[in-house]
Design goal:
Structural class: mainly alpha
Strand content: under 5%
Distance between the termini: 42 Å
Shape: globular
Order of helices and strands: HHHHH
Helix content: over 70%
Number of helices: 5
Largest sheet: none
Number of strands: 0
Length: 145
């Protein structure tokens, strides 16, 4: 047996360069159109509110499509910030705070959907996911502090 050590590589580490290769040109185009990262963050948050409302009303397919668009906005805001050279503490704070609100709106919509169906499993899973989301942010902030 060999003494060499193996480092496992996560799926996100494998995909990151490929996704960056796609997002960088789009980011450059958005910068040329004078669209800022904060604008994309804001529209991503608005889309997440739309996800919550559509899921709450039982329109799961539309909610899924809006969720994909919201995720795209979240991916593009970082690409635009890097391409424009405007990466600052406010932008990072606004992005991470908006992400938590976005998750909250989506999970609230899912909870209400479960409640209207009288399905406690959906409500419980959404509640657990919400707390998990908050705890991940909290533990990351504590670790960085």
């Amino acid at each position: 047996m060999s003494n060499s050590t193996y480092r496992s590589v996560s799926l996100s580490e494998k995909l990151r360069p490929r996704i960056a290769a796609i997002l960088q040109p789009i980011g450059r185009g958005l910068v040329k159109l004078h669209i800022t990262a904060n604008v994309l963050t804001f529209f991503g948050l608005l889309l997440a509110v739309g996800v919550g409302v559509t899921v709450m009303n039982g329109q799961l397919l539309l909610g899924g499509i809006l969720m994909l668009l919201s995720g795209l906005m979240d991916a593009l805001d970082g690409a635009v910030a890097r391409q424009s050279g405007i990466q600052n503490r406010f932008g990072a704070f606004f992005d991470s705070t908006s992400d938590r609100y976005a998750e909250g709106f989506v999970l609230l919509g899912l909870s209400i959907y479960g409640w209207t169906l009288n399905d406690q499993r959906i409500v419980l899973l959404a509640f657990v996911a919400f707390w998990g989301s908050l705890l991940i942010s909290y533990t990351r902030a504590r670790a960085e502090g």
